[in-house]
Structure formats: C-alpha cells, structure tokens
Design goal:
alpha+beta; five-stranded antiparallel β-sheet; elongated
C-alpha cells in the first residue's frame, strides 16, 4: 500500500491470486481462441499480439499463439512485460479482430515452491539465473537499501527502561534536511509524538538519533513475542515491515524500461519485504500495465469499430522437471473486451480475475482451426523459387 505524501489518499494493488488459477499454455491458448469465437470474432481474421519479455523461455507461448491463431503474433511488448502502447495503430491495421496477451513472467521451482529463477539450458550445467533479468535489475537497488537498513536500525532498552529505536540519520526525514534519495523511515508509525506534533529525539549520536517508541508499537511487537534487550539492542531485521518505510529515488533506468521502474517504485516496500520479490514485482507490474493500457485503448482512436480482447496475466516459467521439458503456465489477472457492433453492459468494465478465469474455463480445450506449422514450413520449402530483382 502506498500513501501519497500530498493528499493522504491511499493507493493499493489487488489481490492477485495464483493457486488454482494457473493454466498450462497448451490449454490456455486454445481456450482463448475459442473465447474469441464466442464473442463473435471471425475465423481467419483474428490478429493476435503479445506483450511479453524478450527472454527465450517466452518462445513456446509465442509458438502456441501462432499455431492456434494461424499467424505469428504482433509484438506489443518491451522487456519486463511493458506494453508498447504506441504500437496500437499498426496492430489494429493488421487484422479485423484483435487480441492482445500481456504478461510479465517469473520462474517457479515445483520441487521447492520457490519463485524467481530459471534454468538456462544453453549454459554449461543448466545454470540457474534470474527468471526475468529486467525485473531483477529494477528492484535490486531497492533490495540492497532495504537489507542495509534492516541491519542498521536498532531496538533497545536504555538505562531508564525506555523502549528506543536508533536509526542512522540517512533514514530520517528531518524537517531541516528531508531525505531526497533513499529509504525513509516512517517514524510516525513507530515513535511517540509530542503534543505539538513534533518528533523529538531522546539521544543524539555521531551518525544516528534515538527516539522513544510509542505504546502502540510496543504492543505490536509484544504480539510477536519480541523480547527487548539493553545496550545496543538488536537490529530490526524482519521487523522492518513495509508500512514502516518508503523510498524516495531518482529513477535508475535511463531508457524506455524506465516505465517498469515507475510502475514499481511506489509499491517497492511491499516488493522488497515479500518472500519472493521478483514474483511480487511481476504481479504489481501486470496490474499497473493493465490499467495504463486499458486507458490508452479507451482514449485512443486505434481500436474504434474493432473487436478487441486484451488479457493480462502472469507467465509462470517452469524449468525441465524429471523427464519433462520446460513449460509455461498463464495466470489471468483481468481482461478488457470491446465489440464493434455494441459492447454489452457485461463488458462495460474489465473482467476481474475470477470472471476472466471462469470465461476461459467455459471454453473447449480443443481448437479445430489450429494450423500445422510443420506442414506450413514444408510448403514454404517446396514453393517456387522467385526471381527477386533489383528495382529499376
């Protein structure tokens, strides 16, 4: 959850469930195709598009889209699963009925239940690396700052028996010198506040300040069976939860992928404190991108008088398992549907997660219109050899 410093209005993200909602791609894509037909899309006139990351493990989903829709999908994506909304016009001009599938991705190990890495079969020893290097790259500076803060903010009892928190000055938003770059400790949620609204230290050190914590914060820790100690006390570690800090940063990215960091920055506290930061970051990005893309579709002219199904979700990449090859599952998040004749009230608002999942599962898993890619390639090989000339 993110609290705007100016308005006090809280912005949150939705409950993006995974368990029980993951659909294997060989099942998801034919169901998606049949959903399009059920909406009135015409066979042979559907132009798919994908907004995926550029990783090689996104290749099989693209092949399955090609096989089921009968054409190689348009590329609507940038690294990290960002949608290139400036490509709406060319996509719309390539077909009568349009489909966009957008997904960030994350690796998953079914043996351990751990998210975040994938095997790279083209490396020596099938080396494990980050499943989405771009997401990992975007969140790593914030993870470093959080880990640094966990070990340098302390809870302790002083000689008078007061419960104190001691934090480095660089984490404290002083009225005279507010933090402009880095992690900011939300002291208002932790310490006692004077009657005049000020937060006053009980001790000042060379590089830090100490404050007496509030009764409500003491009660919070007591519920977690925390034991206070004297002296220098102990570092907060896991007690430094997402509601106790935020980040103020000049964004690190310098190219178009800055969109990914912009999507994540305000939710970075819940990302870095999550047990699987890459997975949480992917979920956040999907939700932010879906909202941004739907807005661009509704405000722009590109898809006017067109049938369009835009679906966003999470691609879960599973490396080779026993004798089975690597595979990908799709977890739907939401869908925007517009019909050129008249969009019914049912689709006036986006379909939320359970609704779009149920819509997909109502469809047949068999697609009689899927193409034989091997046969198409053989026809290309046996086709006449054309005389391609230099223009005069």
């Amino acid at each position: 959850m993110f609290l705007s410093r100016d308005s006090g209005i809280v912005r949150d993200i939705g409950n993006f469930a995974i368990q029980g909602l993951a659909i294997p791609y060989p099942e998801f894509v034919p169901r998606l195709y049949n959903l399009c037909l059920s909406l009135g899309f015409k066979r042979g006139f559907i132009m798919p598009s994908r907004a995926f990351c550029s990783d090689e493990n996104q290749g099989f989903p693209i092949i399955l889209l090609t096989k089921n829709f009968g054409t190689f999908p348009f590329n609507h994506g940038r690294v990290g699963g960002i949608v290139a909304i400036d490509r709406h016009a060319p996509h719309a001009s390539h077909g009568e009925d349009l489909v966009i599938v957008q997904a960030s991705h994350v690796g998953y190990d079914p043996k351990t239940g751990v998210y975040g890495t994938c095997e790279r079969p083209k490396t020596e020893g099938n080396r494990l690396t980050a499943s989405c290097g771009k997401i990992t790259h975007a969140i790593e500076p914030y993870l470093d700052q959080y880990r640094f803060a966990q070990k340098r903010i302390f809870l302790h009892l002083d000689a008078e028996g007061r419960h104190l928190i001691t934090a480095k000055d660089s984490f404290i938003d002083f009225a005279s010198k507010p933090v402009t770059d880095g992690l900011v400790l939300n002291l208002k949620e932790i310490v006692k506040i004077a009657d005049d609204g000020r937060i006053l230290p009980v001790a000042t050190h060379s590089t830090s300040h100490s404050y007496e914590v509030s009764d409500s914060f003491c009660e919070r820790l007591a519920k977690q069976n925390y034991v206070w100690t004297g002296g220098s006390g102990s570092a907060m570690e896991e007690l430094l939860t997402a509601d106790l800090f935020c980040f103020r940063e000049d964004l690190h990215e310098t190219d178009e992928s800055i969109l990914l960091e912009r999507n994540l920055i305000e939710f970075m506290p819940i990302i870095v404190t999550h047990k699987s930061p890459p997975m949480k970051a992917a979920k956040v990005n999907i939700q932010m991108e879906f909202a941004r893309t739907v807005e661009s579709i509704r405000r722009g002219p590109e898809y006017k008088n067109k049938n369009l199904l835009y679906i966003a979700g999470l691609n879960v990449d599973i490396s080779t398992y026993l004798t089975f090859p690597s595979t990908t599952y799709f977890v739907p998040w939401a869908a925007h549907i517009q019909l050129k004749d008249s969009t019914s009230d049912e689709y006036l608002h986006p379909l939320e997660q359970k609704d779009i999942f149920n819509k997909l599962m109502e469809q047949e898993m068999v697609n009689p219109d899927r193409v034989d890619l091997k046969e198409q390639i053989n026809q290309m090989i046996s086709s006449p050899r054309f005389d391609i000339r230099t223009p005069r």
